[in-house]
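hi!! sorry for the late reply, been swamped w classes. u asked for the two structures so here they r. pasted raw, havent cleaned anything up. first the sequence of the first protein and right below it the tokens
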Amino acid sequence: MLQKPLIFLFSILTFVRLEYAFGQSKTTYKQAEILWDTWGVPHIYAKNDESLFYAYGWAQTQNHGNLILQLYGQARGKGAEYWGEKYAQADRWVITNSIYERATEWYALQKPAMRKNLDAFATGVNEYANEHPDKLSNEAKRALPVTAIDLIAHAQRITHFVFLAPQARVAAAEKMQGDKNGSNAWAVGPSKSASGNTLLLTNPHLPWSDLYLYFEAQLVSPGVNTYGISRMGFPVLTMAFNETAGYAQTVNTNDGQDFYELTPAEGGYKWDGKIKAFETKERMLRIRQPDGTLKEEKMVIRHSVHGPVVSEKGRKLIAMRVAGLGQSGILEQYWDMARAKDLAAFEAAISRLQIPMYTLMFADNKGNIFNLFNAVVPVRPLGDWNYWSGVVRGDTSATLWTQTHPYKDLPKVRNPATGWLQNTNESPWTATVPMANNHKDFPAYMAPGPSMSFRTQRSVRMLMESDKITLDKFIELKLSTRMELADRILKDLIAAANLNGSPEAKEVATVLANWDHNTDNDSKGAFLFDRFVRKWVGGTEKLNSLGTSSTLFATPWNLDDPVNTPNGLADTKAALNALLEAAKEVKATYGRLDVAWGEVFRFRIGGVDLPGNGGPGPMGVFRTMTLGAPTDGKYLPAHGDTYVAAIEFSKPLKAKVLTSYGNASQPDSKHNNDQLPLLSEKKMRPVWFTRKEAEQHLVEKTVFK
């Protein structure tokens, strides 16, 4: 008799609790304030985490609203629907890989507290847009309103399907081509630092536009005080430090994307001697036309046991399998990593392996330095790295993997005797030298064998040759523009030019002999050498293969002497011909051979146009800057140093940073190029970590009540 009244009473109480919780969440969203400093960096102080996330969503929208709305729209697979044909190819990749559907599933799997945080961030985005509609473009506002599912879809798209499994790699799979995205990271322990404090370097270098941009911020709430950068549109910091610990990440050599060639057959594809049917689904791609109408394109997506079919050329079908799609906690893990105050807490977070790639570099004020080859690595039944870098057979279960390696299996280094750790996007074996891990102790498919690019060698050399490093020295090393390749071959090259004896060769020899081997603003000879290298290797596209596997050197790379080889010229005649040809072109374009590096390489955004410094990573420049296509004889960075943070875990904390392109992309912001002068002058800004410091440099305050 009492059952129905009890159920009714329970329902009423449940409703009251939900109403109370909803009311509380609405009010707690706005217990925060943003202190905007002179560089457009938000220092967010909140009374609880939901308010912190709300304010962070607001802050990102204020500085980058047009861009993040565009990215969220693309993560839905609706970029073409909102903004036209140019986004159609990216939408096809999103739709083919079920990114938005999977994000919906991941949202349901979030822990309640994290789900509230993500909802709060999305609310911050929407409420900024509602209160400042004139600050956003009409085109960007087509993606409104934003939900937490959009945030998850965006994080998944960028992490899993731009960095881990990019669309461009489908066409390149058979050629086994690598990617160009990169970063530097260092950690220096007490035995190597002058003060006995640990030092950490964070230094991604990626394209200076679109999804690759970073946003610099400080996030403070009860128990949280963390500073760093977010990948654009992410609701959490993706590289961060707090008062006692911090970490950097670099793109690593994890192969989490495998391609399988299927054998088509009537009714499906061949599988273990039988015919297996595809699972198919239909989706509609809508493409906005110039007149505002929508053209519809029906997509039929076929799934094999490996994953979706991503390429079809005649009778050749390629399916793709991606690791890490079952891990839904990527954003929560980043949140926990940023808050970790020591190595134990950091390892507790990263051992969950929710982030499918990136080398992680860590330091804390207890004297710990740590490097992890972080990856969701498939447990593969056969083959080595080269085998899985191409296209493998898809008609047999012998090549199908279903499990991934646990945390304990991954290469890692803690507190090495050398006192330092580094990563420059190479395989994990060169984290320190002498090498702490032997690649033969790990599966042959986990990472490529030992090798060292010239950038890696430059990185290792600077750390090996420096002792008792101060924070100022640490920064000086980071900002080094010296070209390691020049140190290896310039002597031979100058000798060959002098031996030739022609007026042209003698002039070339004089310019190169007077060059300081740096790529600073005023370095004369650097540009001539750069043009020579591109001709010598056979074109700009071959630069990435320059190094350990190259046959251009007299002495090839040797694992027993990994930092000083390769060196010398294998064919001095061919090298001299390339040099003279480069010299002819440089003189024809610029009127002289000793043109300064900063005269032709420029830091230019909007109305700011300044001399540039830094140079190509494949030539061994640690301050990496990739030269884009020339315009009127001038070169701009297509890719390169984007953010630098140099931190000493002292008491109090000491840190300097620079976000190269500025901390905003909105067209009316003064912060979309205001840090270029510091970049040109090879300077960094102090971090204003305390509230007092932020208030001393306060330009604007946003208060939520």
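now the second protein. again sequence first, tokens right under
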Amino acid sequence: MMKLDDLNTAAAADFVALLDGTYEHSPWIAERAAAARPFKSLAALKVALARVVREAGIDEQLGLIRAHPELAGKAAVAGELTAESTNEQQKAGLTACTPEEFARLQKLNADYNARFGWPFILAVRGPRGTGFTRAEIIATFERRLRAHPDVERAECLRQIHRIAEIRLNDKFGVTPALGEQLWDWAAALAAHSETEGFLTCTYATPTHTAVAEQLMAWMRDCGFDEVSRDAVGNVVGVYNGTGDISTQQRLLTGSHYDTVRRAGRFDGRLGIFVPMLVVRELHRAGRRLPFGLEVVGFSEEEGQRFPADFLGSSALVGAFQPAWLEGVDAAGITLRDAMQAAGLPGTVESIQSVKRDPSRYLGFVEVHIEQGPVLDSLDLPLGIVTSINGSRRYTGEIVGLASHAGTTPMGQRRDAAAGVAELILFTEQRAAAVPDVVGTVGMLEVPAGSINVIPGRCRFSLDLRATTDEARDALDADVRAKLEEICQRRGLSFTLQPALAANAAPSDAAWQARWEAAVTELGLPLHRLPSGAGHDAMKLHELLPQAMLFVRGGNGGISHNPLESVTVDDAELAVKTFCLLCQNTADLS
């Protein structure tokens, strides 16, 4: 097996020779990466190789893509693939296609090449490393055939990096066992769903309860000293530290286990599994930290069933609103009744007892899939969160005059939809003018619209976010002022109803620095970025210092979607980073 020291000390030509076969017929990648030695870790080597490709010219990138063979193509049939490609296609079962599958792949190969001019690239061993099924490969082929060429070229390169990562693992004899366990937990937990074929787990349903019970069983297996489900449905596991447990402080961590409808497997749940594995490793080694670890699987964060969100973390910070208990879901069931049906007390007193005493805690840290494309586009497995965006949301309606589309002159129209369209473009331009500020109109409706009628009404939503409250409020003021100006100029009227207001949650400097130190210790470059999504950490921010670690998501960073994905290698790095964070914190105690 290859060793990192062999690569770090080898002559440049030997370095290239040792990495032969990692990237298909492209020794120039290793040649350029040699200058970045010494590499502190295998992960650092992978990042350096990917950086060479990212910084290469488009022609070189296309050359790399075209150096790869088609899946189940002519070269595979003729036995002309490299040993590495032959092994991968055999493991995916592509050498045992049915005649129908083979014909389908040949047609897809031809259509893909005609559209893009290069072969379809897929790391057929997949994020788990055990391989996609032939049906999954064909479905992915069909989906990506519809992509924009620039998007697809970037995805091909990311798939090539994943192929290289698996090949390097083989060369070094490395198995990301922690990441594999995390991935398998995610798959097993996703088997509990309210809908067949897609993952859905909303608050206080039988599925939700089954997930909580499974998490508690796994926590006990990991060696937690205390495992329970609290009055709001949070799953809580405690691993005691050294010394008197009645007075010792704890590090609080975790994320949510509920999901959106048609969800991915890793949103929220990744942040429960990572510290569970840390506790498992500590327990197996017979080790205790100078502080306790408290892992919380928050019962609700997504706001999918009831008109409230962050139910789980709100209870911990004492912000659970008693009025929420009377809120109803789409079936008219109150939150109180749903809680009691799920075996929870459903009383204000029991929920208020869940509030934590901040003096007992060092802080709150959360690991989360990025839910965005930044890390994926930079070929980086981990990122440091600097702040969780503050947001303001509205639902609104512009009212004009419905009139005949053919007989009303353009200069005499009161078109409500045109007014909203102008607002959408302004919001886009205004948000784009300031770093880390975003604005979105996600819902748009012309009630009772008709193809030959000028819209008299148009309903819309506004979602405005920024890393600081000042930037958010400035965007908010400008968008609302523009809405008023548009309506006055066009002879329209409007209503605007606030739907949500959340303050920004900047990361605590000390805890952010601890995440950064842990990532650096793994030999990985630091990349800092804000979180545009809301997280339980933004609620805990009201009570404790908090900081987050992001893990790269696959498939362009998509989330809230069945395509949401994390590789076992990135999951492994997240667990190791959390272990280092705990050790570094212990050294400071």
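hope this helps!! also noticed smth abt the second:
The longest helix spans residues 149-172.
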